[in-house]
Amino acid sequence: MKHEVSPARYWNIKECTIPVGKVTIIANFCKGGDDCDECIRFCPEKVLVRGTVPNERGYFPPVLVEEEKCTVCGRCQLYCSENAIFVQKIGERTVTPEEIVVREENF
Amino acid sequence: MTTDQSEESNMEINQHPYADLLRKEMMPNIWCSSCRIGRIKNTFIEAIQQLGYDPDKCVVVSGIGCSSRIAGYLNLDSIHATHGRAIPTALGVKLANPELKVCVMGGDGDILGIGGNHFLALGRHGHDINVFCMNNFGYSMTGFQHGPTTPLGARTITTSSGSPYVPINPVAVALAAGYTFVARSTSSHPYHLIDCMISAMKNRGPSFIEILIPCMLYERRNKIKSLEAIFLEKAKIKETLSEEDINQGDFMKGISLGIFRDAPVRERPRLSLVKSTKKTAAKKFRISFKSRASGIKYMQIRMEGTGGQGIVQGGKTLILAAMNMDPKLNSTLTKRYGPEMKGGSCLTDVLLSSQPVDYPFVEVPDLLMMMSDIVAKERGGKVIISDKGTIVVDESMVDLRLLRNLPKTVKVFKIPATQIARENFRVVVANNVLMGFVCKVTSIIDKNCLKAAILKAAPPGTEEMNLAAFERGYKFRKS
Q1: Contact across the interface for B42 and A31, Cβ inside 8 Å
Q2: Which of B128, B162, B415, B439 has the fewest C-beta atoms lying within 10 Å of its C-beta?
């Protein structure tokens, strides 16, 4: 692809740091449930799970389980049709050698 | 929704990275729960943010349909046009201000079904308009009726036992219509779609992207569990595409995604050939004439006959000759004929007046030229002529019994004009034979004025024959 948008565009490969993200879920906009689970399915770090508390329209918005794992890949905010979820970069952390090995295996 | 909650969600949406381009007062969206149209909206916002376009210089035009609601949720200048007419509206925007980046968002029913002609015409016109067509295989907003892209055998409301028609291929149509950028993508490959959209907006000609999106109603009617899973499994992004990839038939077997064409805008062919042929048309004949005061106060001339005999042409010649003779005369030309080109009744009214003309039609003609009797027979065999008028009759075409009951003050002159024309020239110049005879027997218009008018009114290349026919009619004597 010519104009490639990498999901890892926030990563700093030279200094071996990885961003730490803050995930915000706007529960009232969400239409998740049996039909739509895109943010949960496509999250590479498995940060989200399906929630059990319905919003006022009867849908079940997702819930954060491991927030510190988010790497601001931005997939959930691109895949969400309702713009009910977005991520912001709040900091950076150094990647440990063991984690790099695991990531290289996965990608 | 309580006020606290809505305020809270409003606060949160303002921090969204797409918040600048979203119309927050319209949200949440109206689309179904599993609909992927919102994702196309996100990819479009992402593409605009990556290109760094000024939102004030972007326009989104859409028609009617589920996917056309995108224009309502984008905080850009947008027009929600009538059904199928999104592309003409976008063309108007583009012509009014060529600096704007104009995008058309619409569904397959809007762009390919009802606006199909405009879709074809845009490829021919070659303006920089990006058409993003979201193909969900039918008219889904009204309950999923059969549309132009419904696959063969697919069930919809209107084709309950399977669609019997082969669908059109939008990519093949766009390639044939002359779009300079053609691509296919799906909503399940948003990063590929962003790539295609950026390339399309950079292209300086008409660009077209077919975006396949799953529709819940299609899944339900055809008992497919998940179209998105099929897209993710079967679709393949290809760098180089062959002709087989264009003519893909069933999307259940395989979908090829990618950019089919990314070409610069073609140059338009120049019109020099047409001009040069017009210049070389012969201009040998020139006839000088003298204008004079004619002394005509009010004269009504009528020429009647069958369509194809040159009745309208004769009227034109006559009025040009009258204006050659006396430029101060006021004159009008009205013609009446049926829908048929040849064989119907036809008449031309010419009014010459020294005063401005109030009523352009002839009531009772002073000079009547009858090329055939079809008009008189339609009128019930009645020939309308003023008491001191003149009738010039084409003997070979008119039944002379019609002229029996006329008052004796009416002068009648006869000439077999059509016969003369057929024997010596071609039948089409019969009106000029008659005109020459009229010029001789009545002294209304000078000869040279009429000849100059014939030169002006005759089609190029036939001047010589027309003038010869005129001379023949002028020299006619009854043997």
Answers
A1: no
A2: B162
